[in-house]
Design brief:
By secondary structure, the protein is an all-alpha fold. The protein has 2 domains: about 20-55; about 65-160, Four Helix Bundle (Hemerythrin (Met), subunit A) (Up-down Bundle), CATH 1.20.120. Helix content is about 70%, strand content about 0%. The chain has helices at about 15-55, 65-85, 85-105, 115-135, 140-160; strands at about 110, 115. It has a two-stranded antiparallel sheet. A hairpin with a 2-residue loop joins strand 1 and strand 2. It starts with 16 loop residues before the first helix and ends in a 23-residue tail after the last helix. About 20% of the residues are buried.
Amino acid sequence: MGNQSSERPAPDRRHSPGGGRILLETLTLVLAGVALWSAVSTSHRADRLEARVAILEQAKPYPLGEQMGYLQRYVEKLYFAGQARNWGLADFYAGEVGETADDIAGAQVEKDGVDVSKLMATILPPAERAVEDAVAAKDPASFSARYAALVSACNACHQDAKHGFIKITIPERPSVTNQSFEP
């Protein structure tokens, strides 16, 4: 029979039915690993985001002292604007006084068993509106009288809030020295 070798050629694994199955199983395992890694990674990111949201959702105490400081500053500036008969500036600060008082009233602040927001909503608005009316009328005498009533309302609120040791007075000189109150 000639020069025929008894050796058989090696099978071509690229085309064998078993080789395709191995390749498919390998790809399946790789894709499953990638999917698992992605799921774990996403889960860790979600956990971190949930932790950050929980921190942000924690109730923070209302900055009552800070807001009262703003209110005091606006009341002071209102006074000097009115004394200078700068009615536009006085109107602006009367508005700031009203907005800050409304913020405190709407914040539902209770401190040491006192409903501070309720006090703010009942005691200050009538005095603040009276000052606004004097500013709108551009009436210096009315402004001075109504401003004194506003200061009295502040002190009455402090008394009712068990903070009578905080006494507001009519200012003698501006605490802010870099603002002109002249028209």
